[in-house]
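Lab notebook: predicted structure, single chain.

Context: the supervisor wants predicted structures on file for every construct in the current expression panel, including those that have not yet been purified. This is the next one on the list. No modifications to the sequence; it matches the entry in the shared construct table.
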Amino acid sequence: MAPALINANPVVYQKKERPARTKPGDSGFDEYAAELIDQLEIFDHIRDIKDPEHPYSLEELKVITKDAIEVDDKRNYVRVTFTPTLEHCSLAIVIGLCLWAKLMRSLPSRFKVDIKVAPGSHATEDAVNKRLNDKERVAAALENPNLVDVVDKCLSPSFE
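Prediction complete. Output recorded below exactly as produced.
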């Protein structure tokens, strides 16, 4: 017997078209700007992460949105706030770990990353936030082979 889905019928939204980005070497683009990290770049890195329970991306489920990302390139800081599809989502930690793993693999090491659930969006919001922002717990979780397998499956469509 297959395990029951936590959210058997999620609302699925249409993905937004990716805006054209200016690339280094294009006219009007200076070399320093090529190194800046902004909200749209972070969103582009995480938008295709697959939900651990469904074949949809976190963007399609509106678990993440561009507006829920804060970036301060000068202070080397990124915060991603995500909204689980259900208030009692037991996979919120896994989603947070996927966001962590993708950003740690994508961003320069100078960045401090905070991952949080949106205020009021999860029944155990404080506990989830505490676990996701404890570096030792995150490191230990990402050494668990079973958990790493789940995270890698969620990230696989996002590798280019």
